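Any chance you could type out a protein's amino acid sequence plus the matching backbone structure tokens because I've never seen that pairing?

——
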Amino acid sequence: MFSFLRKTAMPTPDQALPGRSEAMPVPERHYVLNTPLKPPFPEHVETALFGMGCFWGAERRFWTLAGVHTTAVGYAAGLTPNPTYREVCTGMTGHNEVVQVVFDPAVIRYIDLLKVFWESHDPTQGMGQGNDIGTQYRSGIYVHGEAQATWATQSCAVFQAALKARNLGTITTEILPAPHFYFAEADHQQYLAKHPGGYCGLGGTGVDCPDLAQIAPSA
């Protein structure tokens, strides 16, 4: 019971694992898109950051979209610097499993990414997603700038209304300014492309997200 509670409650700074100063080494190029995994990126692209359960399936949802320049999985919104996957799984880093999406806004809009985000997981489950339980599986949108913050917040209200119309639950998604993104280990990058039969616990509510262009026509 203690172990379960520990994994579903955020650690305090004095409880969090110490981590390390060395950044995680990762491949130079995306396994599927063959684009650089790390900056510098082209000047015209923008970055989005999402947590929606196990990051293997979450990343695959985005690298298949036209206009996405590159994706990477990692850890964010916690306390431990440069954590390992094993450390994140203890629940003692506070980090969420996240996917970083670098996209061309001339081809795919941020609101298009938000629609994929809302429809691809169940954002009402608190510290977990399906059978995956723990702080690392919480739903989160980590925004870069005021425009993303506005669209994320408004899209949350729109999708909550759609869920309510189906008598479904209350959204628990955290919407925060984008924290530092720590790359996950090389083995986790584009995992489901390397292991097509690998585990994917991602599953939506079956509710379509309404047209977000109605709330942000210029997004």
Summary: The chain is about 25% helix and 20% strand. Helices lie at 2-7, 55-63, 85-89, 110-120, 145-165, 191-194. The mean pLDDT is 95.
